[in-house]
Specification:
The complex is a heterodimer of chains A (about 425) and B (about 220). Chain A has about 425 residues and is mainly α. Chain A has helices at about 5-30, 35-50, 65-100, 105-130, 145-175, 180-210, 215-250, 255-275, 280-290, 300-305, 315-320, 320-330, 340-345, 365-380, 400-405, 415-434; strands at about 55, 65. The longest helix of chain A is centred in the middle third of the chain and has 39 residues, at about 215-250. Chain B is elongated, with a radius of gyration of 22 Å. The chains are: A mainly alpha (about 425), B mainly alpha (about 220).
Chain lengths: ~425, ~220
Amino acid sequence: MHSYPTAFNYYKWAIRLVGLIIFVGILVHGGPRLGEPLDLSIFFVLIFFAELLPVRFSGTIAEFSMTMPAMVGLFLCYGLPAMMVVSAIGMSVANIITRRGKPLRWLLDMVSYNTADYILAVAAASLAYHLAGGRTLAGGSEVTLSETILPLLLWVATGTTTNMLFITTGLSLYSRQPWRMLFVQNLRWYVPNYVITGPFGILFAYLYLRYDVYGILLMIIPFLAGRQALNQYAVQLDTYRETIATLGSYMQHYHPYTRGHLERVSAMADEVGKQMGLPISSLMFIRDAGLLHDIGKVGVNEEILDKVGQLTDEEWAVIKQHPARGAEILSQMRYLERIVPWVRSHHERPDGRGYPDCLDDSKIPLEAAVIAVADAFDAMTGGPDDANKRTYRAPLTFDQAVAQVRYGVGTQFDPRVVRAFLRVIARAEEKSGG
Amino acid sequence: MADSIWLSPAFLAAVAVTIGVVGYSYVYLPTQMRRAYRQSLLTLARAVETKDTGSEGHGERVSEYVVAAAREMRVPAKERRKMEYAAFLQDIGNVRVPHAILNKPDNLTHEEFDIIKTHAMIGADVVERVKFLRDIAPIIRHHHESWDGSGYPDRLSGEDIPLGARILAVCTTYDSMVHARAYRLQIDEESAIREIRAGAGAKFDPEAVNAFLRILKKRQRNQR
């Protein structure tokens, strides 16, 4: 088992301790009422499956889960103590099942920390809810939907924010990355997620208030169908992208250098993109863009591409067509439209001296700038083994190439990208250096 | 219970959502995806065709013949789709055949022709590496085999050659004859048909030739 940074361990214990105190406090203070066992077990099953079966977009961290809506429904119906107990157990069991096979100590460590994290978040959310004048059925009163909407929105917002603060802090201590950057990255992901799933929570509550537990059962079928549809889409999209990107990259494999280069550019662009906190919708495609950025070279005379020595003006003109040609090829492909401008602009420069459009700084897509750095760096070092080295230029050492990238800041390369790139490089060196 | 649930708008909405979602994910989405997939493969194939002047559109035209001939031979839809994709990508191996040889205007030397011949193996090798295209690799590898065993790269004969490759061989030869290429002048449709018919049982699978000639006749009738 690899060891975590000390600060992260202290942090986890602090969270666990505070979580436990609040948990006991709520149970003692909130009274013993736990609700009908049947209804509670339906909610339990709901939360368990929602947590177990998220909708995942593989290759990314993107994931939608219906856990939060189910928790909102449970909270409205039975109040905080019941919701806390039922969902904490449901989520923990689901978490253990998805990660089965890991060592027991690791599982306990993870589940206890996550549960404590989660208890703090829902406690804060409920506090906000009650402060805003919201009531739950557990109080014995009639509750109408209209009076709960605003406090519910507050519930979701507070719960999400609290959870995000804790996760970001933990992640920042764990990965030693700057807190602010991680926070922005998380914000970009959590906000749309909760905007999408949030209304479902309110719908759950409404159906329960109106039709009792049958209302919840009514939700399950459309919910499962919706999940299935999203997963279906995710799987098909992945298959499609994987096939086209892999085929495209092997097609460029006109000599042994190319494929390894494309793979490394793809991986590096992904790392740098993550480091910069690019939106998830970009991260989903940046690997594909890395593999396909030179697709415009397919079909071009390899005598020009591989020429040793000075190119004539006409030959240069042919080479310079490849970003536009690549963009044109990719524009024919549905679901890959997003990467078309990235491919077109991967030879642009912030000083406006790039090609094909001589774009200036503000008009170059950030993703294109990421690919530009990854591409240039790998072309300079030529990969780890000699057989992969380009024919027309002696490869630089790692340090020389890094120096070249630094030298090009602001003229050839985007400063934001270079900053992220240098951090990625430093982290990789730290890892390999021990 | 507050109201009757079965007549409520909530229930009707739930049913409608379910039907909509199932229809979307099992009918609409797969159709859209397949269309996008087909279009993308075709685009990649076209990108390679630009390297071999005169071959633009070859893959797409041939794929139409192949699918029609396969339907004529009652090949199941799933197999037909594989044959269609193989037809698109048949010459993808040209990415590693030198530009100068592909576009050489005069007769090729033996060595040059041997290099041209590698395109079938290279193409098969490329699609072999792609998980969801692995199935079509044999069709691409063997689309220049002959029924009598005189083809390349493996000198397979008769039914040892995959059916898709046998059909593709007929269709691709015909299309190359009726369209001008760097190394060959265009000939008219009647002479091309005569040559294909003469090749039945020697170069081509006789059944594939029959199916191809039937669909060609149908096409000509429809054009008139």
